[in-house]
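## retry 2 of 3
previous attempt timed out at serialization; input unchanged, resubmitting
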Amino acid sequence: MGAEQASQSPWIKSRHCGASNTCVEVRRLPGRKVGVRAEAGPGEAAILILTEAGWLGFTNTVKSGVLDPGIPPSV
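## retry succeeded, writing output
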């Protein structure tokens, strides 16, 4: 079963995206999972499925700035 069938919760994106079409969207899935996709119309994007722990690790890494080009990691 695909992520689209697994959950009917809405796809959401950050309010910081504004009118941009280059953001990612997320949705909660059954089994404590999180679906992540590039912003696109329904059925137009591949979906990455993460555990809640994986999603938390990803968002913490993004917030740390370690993935930002030109910014040295603070490790």
